[in-house]
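Colleagues,

For the teaching module next term, I've prepared a clean inverse folding example: a structure given as tokens, and then the sequence designed for it. I'd like students to try predicting residues themselves before seeing the answer, so please don't circulate the second half yet.
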């Protein structure tokens, strides 16, 4: 697909960048056309049962919305020294959180989540906690 094509048809699993699940955003090379965006990122997250984010972290610039497609996802937010948990259990459950919100997650059962982040920012723009 060239950068001037008026539409693109693809598959989120096949089109993901660097095995990350992210298939639209600034990290997709410009020669891939419409998938290269600076305003939004899309991720098709496939997580086997028990998979966890190794360390809590926060994106510094983007708002994230994650929608449960299949399975269950437990998200732990680290806010002002306290932990608050939410669990996406039912198809269509979603969570939205802003920039600098430190979080971690764990898949409960084989899980699929569609995440939207805006704006699209460099991968290095994040904060981890110990």
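(Answer key — instructors only)
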């Amino acid at each position: 697909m060239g950068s001037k094509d008026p539409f693109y048809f693809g598959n989120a699993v096949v089109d993901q960048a660097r095995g990350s699940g992210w298939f639209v955003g600034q990290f997709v090379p410009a020669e891939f056309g419409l998938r290269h965006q600076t305003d939004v990122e899309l991720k098709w997250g496939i997580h086997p049962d028990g998979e966890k984010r190794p360390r809590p972290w926060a994106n510094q610039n983007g708002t994230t919305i994650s929608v449960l497609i299949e399975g269950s996802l437990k998200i732990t937010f680290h806010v002002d020294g306290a932990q608050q948990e939410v669990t996406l259990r039912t198809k269509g459950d979603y969570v939205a959180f802003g920039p600098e919100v430190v979080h971690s997650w764990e898949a409960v059962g084989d899980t699929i989540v569609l995440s939207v982040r805006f704006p699209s920012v460099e991968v290095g723009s994040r904060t981890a906690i110990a």
